[in-house]
């Protein structure tokens, strides 16, 4: 009886000890940098004690401004919402209102955020400026109406335009043009055309919001697919079961296997039919022969 009591109390203290060790291993740290007063899990500030936040969500503090380096680009952090799991970023190249290209494209040209740590836009999926470089002046072409000249990048023989896309639409650049960069921006339902680069700049300066999710990152790193279920805030992510996208080569192999398999099956079926038909004929011939001999005998 005593030993039981003794062991259970020992186990109990061990559990309590483990509990405290656990708490110690995840200190409640909250750092601040300029306007961002509450940098806490999963975010951490460079130089925070190890164990603070998650190293995948590390910000640096430069001249009292929190900076996130992703995609690869450099962005000022204007706001972190722990409730909505969103973060507002402003490209360092646009923050002071100067003309230029984004420091790094957030999206691939097919419109996907290319970082497993950040998924989904806040309330405005797919609003962006495309920076388009052309070898001719297309300003007078009618379909170029919503191309706004980027003055600082347009030189003799090189014409750079910003094209607003408020509702992710397929964009096919003209023959003499190509998309050189993309900058996400807030959705402006009232505008499709920006008459001046100042108006473009204003939107770029306000930055954009993207979602972050540790759960989603872990899901992606585990080889599963994380999808944004709802674009309303707070964003809802779901981790889908094992999911592996087939590469083109794998797809081709599968198609080839199906075709070859089908041909073999067809061959086998034809073979069987031929054999069956032959057997039937042979049997009929045999039957005919026996009939004939029988008849002959009867006649005899
Ligand atoms: C963490 O720190 C914040 C403020 O720094 C405080 O409001 C909060 O209660 C703390 N949480 C825990 C679990 O100690
Ligand atoms: C900072 O964020 C943490 C985590 O979301 C929260 O628990 C805490 O209350 C916040 N503190 C302040 C001062 O906003
Ligand atoms: C961040 O956004 C929240 C909610 O929209 C707002 O209350 C807060 O003041 C903002 N913080 C900063 C630093 O802009
Ligand atoms: C804005 O910042 C860029 C570098 O990021 C600098 O070259 C430029 O002079 C700045 N412009 C203004 C108006 O401060
Ligand atoms: C391009 O053409 C438009 C209209 O013809 C003209 O107003 C504009 O100055 C031209 N742009 C450049 C950079 O030459
Ligand atoms: C721009 O190019 C045209 C023809 O290609 C040339 O005549 C003109 O001198 C150039 N202007 C400058 C400023 O280089
Ligand atoms: C340009 O504007 C027209 C109408 O203003 C719109 O139909 C078209 O989709 C726009 N093109 C792009 C690439 O946004």
Automatic annotation (TrEMBL):
GO terms for molecular function: polysaccharide binding. Keywords: Membrane, Signal, Transmembrane, Transmembrane helix. It holds the Pfam family GUB_WAK_bind. It comes from the Eukaryota. The chain crosses the membrane at residues 253-277. Residues 29-91 form the Wall-associated receptor kinase galacturonan-binding domain. It is a single-pass membrane protein. Its main location: membrane. One of its GO terms (cellular component) is membrane. This is Wall-associated receptor kinase galacturonan-binding domain-containing protein. The lineage of its organism: Eukaryota, Viridiplantae, Streptophyta, Embryophyta, Tracheophyta.
């Amino acid at each position: 009886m005593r030993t039981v009591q003794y062991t259970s109390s020992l186990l109990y203290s061990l559990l309590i000890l483990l509990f405290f060790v656990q708490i110690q291993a995840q200190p409640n740290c909250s750092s601040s940098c300029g306007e961002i007063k509450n940098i806490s899990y999963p975010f951490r500030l460079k130089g925070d004690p190890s164990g603070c936040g998650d190293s995948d969500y590390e910000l640096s503090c430069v001249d009292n401004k929190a900076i996130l380096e992703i995609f690869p680009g450099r962005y000022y952090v204007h706001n972190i919402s722990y409730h909505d799991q969103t973060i507002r970023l402003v490209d360092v190249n646009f923050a002071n209102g100067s003309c230029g290209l984004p420091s790094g494209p957030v999206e691939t040209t097919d419109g996907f955020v290319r970082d497993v740590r950040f998924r989904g836009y806040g309330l405005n999926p797919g609003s962006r400026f495309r920076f388009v470089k052309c070898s001719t002046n297309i300003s007078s072409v009618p379909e170029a109406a919503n191309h706004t000249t980027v003055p600082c990048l347009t030189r003799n023989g090189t014409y750079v335009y910003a094209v607003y896309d408020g509702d992710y639409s397929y964009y096919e650049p003209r023959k003499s043009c190509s998309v050189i960069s993309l900058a996400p921006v807030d959705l402006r339902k009232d505008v499709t055309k920006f008459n001046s680069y100042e108006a473009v700049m204003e939107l770029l300066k306000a930055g954009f919001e993207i979602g972050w999710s540790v759960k989603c990152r872990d899901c992606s790193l585990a080889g599963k697919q994380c999808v944004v279920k709802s674009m309303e805030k707070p964003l809802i992510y779901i981790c889908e079961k094992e999911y592996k996208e087939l590469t083109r080569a794998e797809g081709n192999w599968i198609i080839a296997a199906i075709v070859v398999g089908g041909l073999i099956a067809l061959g086998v079926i034809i073979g069987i039919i031929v054999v069956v038909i032959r057997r039937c004929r042979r049997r009929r011939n045999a039957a005919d022969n026996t009939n004939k001999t029988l008849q002959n005998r009867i006649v005899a």
